[in-house]
User: Which sequence fits this backbone?
């Protein structure tokens, strides 16, 4: 450790580290629009300039300037503040002046900095950027006119997700962030994960909103509007209403959904239990009959598009199970419609997901039958919060309610789907039971828990060792896929989730979350599991009844028709 | 609809010859009979001369709002014909149109609005939805 002087007080710093992390640890707040933790600094925005005395001195970008023993730093000198203000003024000089109409109004870091630095008059007037608005993707809207070229989206797409669908194109003042050949995201290699939205400081990236369709359906007396909510929503939605991260608001959320006018409220965790029944059976079948191994999970639509685009040689490794969203969507428009005597075309099926790739998934032709989509509209957690606020409801003040039967009953295993490792943990619990007839003695599969990017474990089932792995974040997925491509053969079953940390950190979640908030969401799911009376999917009575009354057996004929699908090589521009 | 043994006829109107050629090939491969038009007049002539099962219309043709006019014309003469409006209008002008609600569909005179560039699988899913047995398309005169 070395000591440096910051604003006339001594702080400790690690030798060789950059100034910005040392300042942050000491509680000194220096703004930045381009910095990303754990990634190499780019020094692109220059907002983190601080004044260093002596030596080369002057204004330096603290994110990219290494600490030196004895250095003297002034983070908020008049010169540093003036420089920051000028940078913001220059960024605003060609920025569209439509804050009131912008999806990120009051949630924009550029707007926040302008207010913080006291920008109250326009000193610089630049020609407004007239880049193309891209609304072609069913998941993400890209508005490069609002882009400040900080490069965060490019880096998350390339360095975290290993996709590289967007990059800097053009030169000098014509530089912009765009897709290959500047075509729309819709035909690019974008996997629609939405991690770019999570890091964008302005309104340049946002979800393709479906609130209009949902509100119209809710006001249409001819429509029977049903909603399902994903496992991770109840532990993150509260944050949009100033409730601490990790508080489970399941009951209040169900009340809010009823007040909004949804005719039925179902829980996607029910379908997660159903997925496990099918997926664990599929794994057992592949193990017993020499099927394609390792088997890959198929719940995460960004991951599916990633495989179709970048690793089509592994398509057969994917489980044929639909995702829980699509399983429940299919069950609602078939079993539920039949039971209730409702024309499936009159049902408007909505899902609220922590994800924007689910919007893409719902629009896939594989998930329509007779031209009727199984899921009509997908809302992100953020969009649901907007609708709840629009209705004038405060989640913190609502009495809790419970989801509707029969597709509202869930086990804790289904709820675990919301975090990385959760699908694996649920699958191991049920696979063990299916193969041995006995429950696991310790339900908690500790090695697959936590936020590590790649996790591995071995499970002994009936004397046979089953090697499993878990990867979250597509960059981490690449690591495992490349190992398998190079001949690794010991793994039997792998869970892949598109977003780092899983759905709790999905591209549709509240944007304010830091790593601590994501950990809190994860621990909330673990707490739900720990306290639950039912912790294994095969214990879900509603799922068992669905089998006995309608589906027959897992992997049976009706299950295949409703709950399974297949994927294809995807040609994209890249 | 035409007789079941016939291929469904799809009118495709777009002034972009490349788009038209590409879409014609894709629609033919998918089992449809596309009738292509590069101008509004050609599109009207095709519509007048035969019964079509669905129309795919580009918004900005000879006139910036030519697609709207054509949709209006089609709907006026056949309130039941399903229409998919396609356009790069958002990227070219920054203006956004939607046909997401009944209200929007009633003034756009189209059932679906798709922003270019479009994936064929996406277009095909919409065609199947609008021509399928459970089509819940609302029609206006």
Assistant:
């Amino acid at each position: 450790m070395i000591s440096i002087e910051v604003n006339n007080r001594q702080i400790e710093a690690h030798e060789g580290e950059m100034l910005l992390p040392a300042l942050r640890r000491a509680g000194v707040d220096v703004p930045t629009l381009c910095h990303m933790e754990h990634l190499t600094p780019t020094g692109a925005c220059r907002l983190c300039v601080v004044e260093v005395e002596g030596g080369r001195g002057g204004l330096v970008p603290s994110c990219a300037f290494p600490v030196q023993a004895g250095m003297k730093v002034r983070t908020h000198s008049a010169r540093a503040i003036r420089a920051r203000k000028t940078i913001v003024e220059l960024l605003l000089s060609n920025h569209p002046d439509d804050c009131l109409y912008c999806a990120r109004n009051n949630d924009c870091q550029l707007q926040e900095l302008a207010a913080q630095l006291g920008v109250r008059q326009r000193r610089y007037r630049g020609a407004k950027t007239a880049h193309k608005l891209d609304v072609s993707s069913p998941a993400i809207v890209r508005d490069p006119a609002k882009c400040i070229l900080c490069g965060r989206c490019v880096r998350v797409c390339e360095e975290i997700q290993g996709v590289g669908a967007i990059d800097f194109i053009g030169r000098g003042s014509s530089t912009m962030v765009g897709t290959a050949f500047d075509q729309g995201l819709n035909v690019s290699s974008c996997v629609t994960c939405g991690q770019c939205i999570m890091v964008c400081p302005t309104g340049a990236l946002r979800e393709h909103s479906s609130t209009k369709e949902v509100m119209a359906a809710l006001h249409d007396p001819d429509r029977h509007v049903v909603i399902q909510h994903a496992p991770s929503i109840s532990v993150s939605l509260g944050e949009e209403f100033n409730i601490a991260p990790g508080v489970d608001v399941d009951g209040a959320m169900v009340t809010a959904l009823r007040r909004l006018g949804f005719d039925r409220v179902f829980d996607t965790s029910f379908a997660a239990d159903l997925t496990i029944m099918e997926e664990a059976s599929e794994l057992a079948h592949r193990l017993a009959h020499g099927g394609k191994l390792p088997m890959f999970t198929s719940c995460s639509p960004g991951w599916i598009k990633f495989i179709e685009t970048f690793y089509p040689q592994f398509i057969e490794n994917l489980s044929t199970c639909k995702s829980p969203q699509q399983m429940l969507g299919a069950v609602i428009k078939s079993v539920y419609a039949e039971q209730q005597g409702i024309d499936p075309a009159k049902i408007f099926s909505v899902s609220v997901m922590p994800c924007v790739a689910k919007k893409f998934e719902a629009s896939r032709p594989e998930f329509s039958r007779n031209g009727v989509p199984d899921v009509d509209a997908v809302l992100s957690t953020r969009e649901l919060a907007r609708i709840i606020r629009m209705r004038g409801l405060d989640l913190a003040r609502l009495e809790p309610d419970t989801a509707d039967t029969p597709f509202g009953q869930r086990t804790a295993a289904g709820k675990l789907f919301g975090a990385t490792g959760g699908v694996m943990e649920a699958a191991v619990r049920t696979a063990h039971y299916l193969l041995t007839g006995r429950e696991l003695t310790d339900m908690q599969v500790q090695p697959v828990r936590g936020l590590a990017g790649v996790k591995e474990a071995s499970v002994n089932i009936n004397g046979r060792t089953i090697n499993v792995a878990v990867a979250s974040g597509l960059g981490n997925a690449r690591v495992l896929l490349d190992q398998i491509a190079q001949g690794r053969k010991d793994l039997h079953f792998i869970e892949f989730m598109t977003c780092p940390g899983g759905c709790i950190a999905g591209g549709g979640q509240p944007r304010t979350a830091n790593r601590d908030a994501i950990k809190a969401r994860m621990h909330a799911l673990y707490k739900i599991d720990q306290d639950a009376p039912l912790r294994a999917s095969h214990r879900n009575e509603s799922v068992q009844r669905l089998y006995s009354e309608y589906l027959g057996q897992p992997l049976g004929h009706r299950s295949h028709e409703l709950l399974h699908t297949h994927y294809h090589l995807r040609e994209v521009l890249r | 609809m035409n007789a079941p043994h016939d291929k469904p006829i799809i009118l495709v109107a777009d002034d972009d010859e490349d788009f038209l050629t590409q879409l014609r090939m894709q629609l033919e491969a998918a089992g449809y009979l596309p009738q292509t038009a590069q101008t509004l007049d050609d599109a009207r002539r095709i519509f007048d001369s035969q019964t079509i099962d669905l129309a795919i219309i580009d918004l900005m043709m000879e006139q910036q709002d030519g697609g709207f006019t054509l949709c209006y014309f089609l709907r006026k003469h056949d309130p039941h014909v399903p229409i998919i409006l396609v356009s790069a209008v958002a990227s070219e002008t920054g203006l956004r149109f939607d046909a997401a609600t009944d209200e929007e569909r009633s003034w756009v005179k189209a059932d679906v609005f798709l922003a270019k560039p479009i994936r064929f699988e996406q277009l095909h899913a919409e065609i199947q939805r609008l021509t399928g047995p459970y089509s819940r398309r609302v029609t206006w005169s």
In short: The CA atoms of residues 67 and 145 of chain A lie 36 Å apart.
